[in-house]
Amino acid sequence: MPRPIQATIHTAALRHNLARARLAAPDAKVWAIVKANAYGHGIERVFEGLRAADGFALLDLDEAQRVRALGWRGPILLLEGAFELRDLELCSRLDLWHTVHCDEQIDMLASHKTKVAQRVFLKMNSGMNRLGFTPQRYRAAWTRLNALPQVDEISLMTHFSDADGARGITEQMAVFAEVTRDLPGERTLSNSAATLLHTPAKQAHDKSGDGFVASDWVRPGIAIYGSAPDFPQHSATDWGLQPSMTLAAKIIATQALDTGASVGYGSTFVADKPIQVGVVACGYADGYPRLCPTGTPVLVNGIRTRTVGRVSMDMLAVDLSAVTAAGGQVGIGSEITLWGRAANGMVLGIDEVAQPAGTVGYELMCALAPRVPVQVAE
Length: 378
Known about the structure:
By secondary structure, the protein is an alpha/beta fold. 28% of the residues lie in helices and 25% in strands. The chain is built from 13 helices and 19 strands. It has helices at residues 11-24, 35-39, 43-50, 61-69, 87-94, 103-111, 135-146, 170-180, 192-197, 200-206, 321-325, 350-354, 361-366; strands at residues 5-10, 29-33, 55-58, 76-78, 97-100, 118-124, 151-158, 187-190, 217-218, 245-257, 262-263, 269-270, 275-280, 297-300, 303-308, 316-319, 335-341, 347-348, 374-377. The strands form 3 sheets. An 8-stranded parallel beta barrel has the order 2-3-4-5-6-7-8-9, surrounded by 4 helices. A 6-stranded antiparallel beta barrel has the order 10-13-16-15-14-17. A two-stranded antiparallel sheet has the order 11-12. Helix 7 (135-146) packs parallel to helix 8. It is elongated, with a radius of gyration of 24 Å. The two termini are 25 Å apart.
């Protein structure tokens, strides 16, 4: 028999979350962000659930070729643009739109021999300080691009560093608006956090009056995979999002611990009363964080309980007290939901698992190990 662990990608949840992003920004077109192999889900596995998007945004040419191979003929945006001159040849062949964030990329375009002008997204560094032209140099970059016969339409782009926090978007939005106020072209500004927290609909509902951003295109990433961009201020449920990935395993052994007995490497958990634990076929080699401490939430047969002891390469242990206290039957073969949706419909948000490990749901999704079998289901 195969080892009893499996991930499930939920097509219906992807559709739902994409629709939720549209509801938050009803006047905008929506990029479905599928970088990092669709946040660890697999581009081919999520395509059916996200094909209602207006475009797909990603990082590299291999991912773009995979999306085209699935039959997508709509817009595809390279979020980091071309890395070298020959990349532009494939952009022309695959009809890719691409970001321009530095002088070197403008130089590449100027050297590119093409009969078809390309759609580019000129990125401003409005405060994130990763990619993009500073506000002082942005208009000069736009002027250079606009003069090139290799360039067709120029769209305008930035990225908010604190849309999910107290600082918000006001400062960056003011900078972007001032520099671009009379420049033509569509705008794409809003990531998941800005799409959900700083849209006209949200501002009207909250009456907060702290400003909002209206994008021609929004760029929901983590939200379409069912994770809250501003956890723990809000959960995925608060935003009406559904988990797009479930990681489930089964109990492969049980142990009865007396008071004072420990479980796992380093004896980091010592029972303060007699308890029964279940040993689960999941460990850090499967992508479950090794740093998850005792107390990390888990579902056993859909009942919420906790992990105990240290996560090892292939196994972890869970406290079965809550299950037995509820009168449930539990033993070898019982269902364990590490994150996502249990068979009885109970949901354990991936953010709740990531937080005790000091990380975010993004990392858990992307870290799903190749050895874990994956199925696609509605």
